[in-house]
Design brief:
Number of domains of chain A: 3
Structural class of chain B: alpha/beta
Strand order of the largest sheet of chain B: 3-2-1-4-6-5
Helix content of chain A: 10-25%
Radius of gyration of chain B: 19 Å
Oligomer: heterodimer
Shape of chain A: globular
């Protein structure tokens, strides 16, 4: 069975929680005791129908205040696929949370209220989905029941969104008219929208082609951990454990080790279950080489004729995630990129991007919580990276504040800084 | 479809990545092991992560003393096979030393005492990372917890102040006295765990399979008759064919009526069931709607 991770963005007003509740309910993922708890809570809150939104509001503080604090992960499965939902709140700290949820997603669902059309918030969500390079975007035009299941209205919203989306880098865009509350086009095609000939939302989630979203072109193997058993049976064993970050690797392949530049060939690719003939992202394996070379965590194996950029100077889009501090030129931070951790200095904040208008503010002195901007940084040691748009594993990083140890930013590499 | 991984292989790869990341970045990690199916799966994943080397950290059992004998036998045998070093944090010893006070009455449970014993164990052995077998599908509070979950010097979890966690980049930086709880199987569901146990042919304690047992009903749950629990006046023990969906302290883990005698039958049962495993079998989570959230904040698993 395949696995699909998707992120949902939108606020309670858009019916996002109701939509997720509907997916869980109609795929029979919700258990009786969970439904009982929701029904009890619905009665207490005086709502007329079982409030499916309550299924996804987890913490006590959230139930008391009727808000969603953080990214929550939900799970359901159909006979075709296992699904992991990163459920991100629409209002409080939306950017930080959506960026977090989007970082691992194969697909994003952005909800639009059919009555209101494309609002600032919808544009923001679509922009973040494109910034994080989520390969597939679904625009769920919700509350179709409240516009009389009007085809004209659906087409208007589609057109409105398309004209905005032209400015974004979106690979695959799908529009689906739904009513989360009544279940139209969520699991089954609805009789209320005979003019719509596309799939239901669930059908689309089950069928959307994700196998070619991974990078199988550029072999990249960040060394995570060196395995040296030093036991009698494996006296001279020296294996490099890690998760393949791109491409396909096979025994016999010539490799080059960064940063040393030494060459060797792959002797074998080992796992607990035996050696394998080939390995690809995101497999976790142990690679042995034919030559004894000094290799440690943070090094990278790649092919001699297909190497990542090795540089101390990085140009990246950064999303700032801390309320307690800000980023400006001169900021000193710690970067974690693949299996490398090092100090960095922010050289320049080129601009802050207004994610509602996509306009660039080149005079912005700093990036604050939930702000996104383009920065150039210099790192203490070279990093081995690809453009984020080419490889989400070798193109992404986090920034850590050494004083507080918290994660303060997420970054997507554009290239080597000039 | 040559380069596809099944959901179980993807989940496995993610778990192995997490185990290796912790072994590489922490001084003194430890794997929490209860003898339950989730910790058994974790042990296998840890073996896979470091093979052909042994697991490079010890295993800790927070022992309430109220164990299923079958599970204790299994624990010792399985850890010996893996070549793992066992550290026991004993609730009984903490009671004897006067560090914690045992609850009294027929509903007495050592569940809450575990938190203190766990935190003392962490401090004593200076563990800086603890692998736990929590899954996000288990409970609402867990659905929002990070894979690397920061604990302050009091062992507390602050749900409103969690570190952002993106891609597979985990931030394990801590100060002295703080630690990280690490959940390598966060993204598995109960069904995934059973499917993995089947796919990997992993041995599990016999109490997971249907067997005849003397039980009694309390608060809608079937509890096993044992030396650790006092019957109340209206409670009548009887023989029933049952199995356990979760394995914990005998005094608060309920059995379910079941004839599922092998893994396939269990998978069928779990696929068809309409009640979550914690809702069905754990008295500890029923105390209030936010029971798990409150215990986690104090430092519970």
């Amino acid at each position: 069975m395949e696995m699909l991770r998707f992120a949902t963005a939108g606020s309670v007003d858009d019916g996002k929680s109701t939509l997720i509740g509907r997916l869980l309910y109609d795929t029979k993922t919700i258990f009786q005791d969970q439904l009982d708890a929701v029904e009890r809570a619905s009665v207490q809150m005086g709502t007329e129908y079982t409030n499916l939104a309550l299924l996804t509001d987890g913490l006590r503080a959230e139930r008391e205040q009727g808000i969603t604090i953080d990214v929550a992960y939900r799970y359901f499965a159909t006979p075709k696929r296992k699904f992991i939902i990163a459920d991100t709140p629409g209002h409080t700290q939306y950017t930080r949370n959506m960026v977090t949820g989007a970082s691992t997603a194969d697909l994003a669902i952005v909800l639009i209220d059919a009555r209101k059309g494309v609002l600032e918030q919808s544009r923001r969500h679509a922009f973040l989905a494109s910034l994080l390079r989520i390969p597939h975007l679904v625009l769920a035009v919700n509350k179709m029941d409240l516009v009389g299941y009007s085809e004209d209205r659906f087409e208007e919203v589609k057109e409105e969104f398309r004209s905005f989306a032209m400015k974004l880098d979106i690979v695959d865009l799908t529009f689906i008219p739904v009513s989360a509350l009544h279940g139209d086009n969520v699991v089954e095609r609805s009789g209320n929208t005979p003019w719509y000939d596309g799939p239901s939302l669930l059908h689309h989630l089950e069928e959307v082609h994700i196998a070619s979203d991974r990078n199988l072109i550029d072999p990249r193997f960040p060394v995570q951990y060196v395995i040296r058993p030093q036991s009698d049976d494996y006296h001279d064993y020296r294996g490099y454990a890690g998760t393949i970050a791109g491409g396909v690797m096979r025994p016999g392949d010539e490799v080059v080790v960064l940063p040393s530049g030494f060459g060797s060939t792959i002797k074998s690719i080992d796992t607990f279950d035996g050696s394998v003939d080939e390995a690809f992202a995101p497999m976790a394996v142990t690679v042995r080489l034919s030559d004894e070379i000094d290799i440690s965590r943070g090094d990278m194996l790649c092919r001699p004729n297909n190497q990542p950029t090795a540089s101390q100077d990085i140009d990246a889009m950064v999303c700032w995630m801390s309320e307690r501090s800000s980023l400006s030129s001169g900021s000193r931070l710690v970067i974690k990129h693949t299996t490398r951790t090092a100090k960095v200095i922010v050289r320049d904040l080129a601009y802050q991007l207004d994610i509602n208008t996509l306009s660039r503010n080149e005079d912005a002195p700093e990036l604050k919580l939930n702000e996104i901007g383009r920065v150039s940084m210099r790192c203490q040691v070279p990093l081995f990276f690809d453009e984020y748009r080419r490889n989400r594993s070798t193109g992404s990083f986090i920034l850590i504040d050494e004083a507080t140890n918290t994660t303060v930013a997420a970054g997507m590499i554009l290239g080597e800084a000039g | 479809m040559a380069y596809d991984l099944t959901h179980l292989r993807q989940l496995e790869a993610e778990s192995i990545h997490i185990f290796r990341e912790v072994a590489a970045e922490f001084e003194n990690p430890c794997l929490l092991f209860s003898g339950g199916k989730d910790s058994i799966v974790m042990l296998r994943l840890a073996e896979k992560a470091f093979w052909p080397a042994k697991i490079p950290f010890p295993v800790m059992h927070v022992d309430t003393g109220h164990n299923f004998p079958e599970v204790m036998e299994f624990r010792d045998r399985r850890l010996a096979e893996a070549g793992a070093r066992l550290v026991v944090a004993s609730v009984q010893e903490a009671i004897d030393a006067g560090k914690v006070v045992e609850e009294t009455g027929p509903r007495a449970s050592r569940n809450r005492l575990q938190t203190r014993v766990l935190l003392d164990g962490i401090a004593e052995h200076r563990f800086d990372a603890l692998f736990g077998g929590a899954r996000r599908d288990e409970e609402k509070a867990r659905a929002k917890e990070r894979v690397f979950s920061f604990r302050d010097e009091f062992g507390q979890w602050d749900p409103k102040n969690q570190r952002p966690e993106l891609w597979s980049l985990y931030n394990g930086r801590i100060r002295q006295g703080e630690h990280i709880r690490v959940f390598p199987i966060s993204n598995y569901t109960e069904l995934d765990i059973w499917q993995y146990i089947k796919a990997e042919n992993i041995e599990i304690p016999s109490v997971y399979f249907s067997h005849r047992r003397e039980v009694f009903e309390r608060d809608g749950m079937l509890l096993s008759v044992s030396p650790f629990i006092t019957l109340m006046d209206d409670e009548e023990p009887y023989m029933e064919t049952v199995r356990y969906r979760t394995v914990g302290d005998m005094s608060c883990t309920g059995a379910v009526e079941s004839s599922a005698a092998d893994i396939d039958a269990i998978i069928d049962e779990v696929s068809a069931t309409r009640i979550t495993e914690r809702g069905a079998t754990r008295a500890d989570d029923r105390v209030s709607e936010a029971a798990m959230e409150d215990r986690k904040k104090e430092g519970y698993f």
